[in-house]
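Hypothesis: this fold can be encoded by more than one sequence.
Test: take the structure tokens below, design a sequence, compare later.
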């Protein structure tokens, strides 16, 4: 086998080994990024759940506050009548 063929085969093997090494490193980094993105995704979903609209929860509160407002209007009216009478 000529020397040029041997050198070509050796260079090809070195290039293939370098590519395999760097591709393995890329896979390791991508797995780490995937893990980080999974944690971020979990955190964002948690935040979204905790900041969901409160409409359904506030309906009973609104009803109670409207009742309190009606009672306070009545108290204010009776106080106004007492002040005018005196």
């Amino acid at each position: 086998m000529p020397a040029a063929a041997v050198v070509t085969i050796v260079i090809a093997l070195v290039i293939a080994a370098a590519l395999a090494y760097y591709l393995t490193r890329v896979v390791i980094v991508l797995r780490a990024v995937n893990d980080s993105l999974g944690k971020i995704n979990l955190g964002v979903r948690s935040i979204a759940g905790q900041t969901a609209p409160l409409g359904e929860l506030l309906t009973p509160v609104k009803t109670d506050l409207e009742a309190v407002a009606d009672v306070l209007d009545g108290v204010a009216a009776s106080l106004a009548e007492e002040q005018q009478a005196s």
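The mean pLDDT is 93. The first helix runs from residue 3 to 50.
Hypothesis status: open.
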